[in-house]
Amino acid sequence: MPATFRTTPLRGLATAATLTLLIGALASCGYGSQAKNDKEQVAATGEKLSADSVRLGYFPNLTHATALVGHQEGIFQKELGGTKLDVSTFNAGPSEIEALNAGSIDIGFIGPSPAINGYTKSKGSNLRIIGGSASGGVKLVVNPEKIKTLADVKGKRIATPQLGNTQDVAFLNWISEQGWKVDAQSGKGDVSVFRTDNKVTPDAYKSGSIDGAWVPEPTASKLVSEGAKVLLDEASLWPDDKFVITNIIVSQTFLKEHPDVVEAVLRGSVKTNAWINANPEKAKESANSKLKELSGKPLGAKVIDGAWPSIRFTNDPLAATLQAQADHAVKAGLLEQPDLKGIYDLTALNKVLKAEGQPEVADAGLGVK
Fold first, then answer.
1. Which residues contact 357 (CB under 8 A, 6 or more apart)?
2. CA-CA distance, 80 to 76, in Å (whole number)?
């Protein structure tokens, strides 16, 4: 039976005031499954690869900065030559998986939970993870007047972005490790877990509806700008402070039909990560410029300066941590035991890394046979 995240309606999760806030904010920001199309600024020139175009999807947030910077600086298009890069941006993992399944995009940057869920729901037939992009960038931030120590989290109201999403699973696992009990579906228990969209979370914090949040950047730093304090960086819970936050996925059909295009995109990603790591300040400015173009407003200096250092840009998909995240979801009761064998195909990435003089990366036994 394919593994699926259970999405039983939440009961008694928020007060009427919070629900009003959520509805109003969601309506104003247009959050949902709609993708925003964006035109590549760099012209497609040179020799065309096996496809006329490649459709790339990513989120307009800092944990997808490889895509933001590679797009902004024209690095992807340079590697693609005469093959045109078409870009769509998404606000949620499920909508990007839907787009991949529908053939609306070919390659995407995405978090581990939607990649796991998409792969298992299709019984391993729709996607492959072909590379890594980012690690880290997730923090527990809290109201310092109400929460001064980790033990103080018990009995408080903490937001996560979505039931069963990557941060929700991580927080539920952390709660379990403290010996506390929470019903994963309702969010009720020793800690009250409020599933709140990242766009809404800062307003929920300001209104006092929540006492803190386990969230990715830049939401964490937005809360800090409102007076919250970082209580825990999730990276500290993982070996070598590394865990996957963003992968690169591809449609299996596109991978089979256009391996040269896939390799070109991966080459662009590897070169972008190298440029980001060699030029962190310029890369931060580039990512913010693309965010301004996509959303109409850049991140404030205090927010982006606080967020950027906690994100590590890496080509390694950190496959062992993907398996661990799936295990955490199973333990929380949000995921049936998945079979992730075959979710990775790192052949093209390792070819690119070898050509760039970089070490190859491993799939933790979850690669194609």
1. none
2. 6
Helix (H, G, I), strand (E, B) or coil at 40: coil
Burial 82-99 (b: 16+ CB within 10 A, else e): ebbbbbbbbbbbbbbbbb
Query: 3-class SS at 37?
Result: strand
Q: What is the distance between the alpha carbons of residues 112 and 208, in angstroms, rounded to a whole number? A: 31
How many C-beta atoms lie closer than 10 Å to residue 187's C-beta? 24
Burial class (CB within 10 angstroms; exposed 0-12, middle 13-18, buried 19+) of 16? exposed
**Residue pair 117/4 in contact by the 8 Å Cβ criterion:** yes
Q: How far apart are the C-alpha atoms of 290 and 293, rounded to whole Å?
A: 5
Q: CA nearest 233: which of 292, 333, 312? A: 312
**pLDDT confidence of residue 208:** 97
The tokens describing 203, both together, are 């307003």
Please give the DSSP secondary-structure letter assigned to residue 205: H
Percent of the chain past pLDDT 90, that is, above it, reads 83
**CA dist., res. 225 & res. 127, Å (int):** 38
Is the pLDDT at 43 greater than 90? The verdict is: no
Measured CA to CA, the distance from residue 142 to residue 249 in angstroms comes to: 33
3-state secondary structure of 362: coil
Residue 44 banded pLDDT, cuts 50, 70, 90:
confident
Record the pTM. Answer: 0.86
Least confident of 31-35, 38-42, 310-314: 31-35
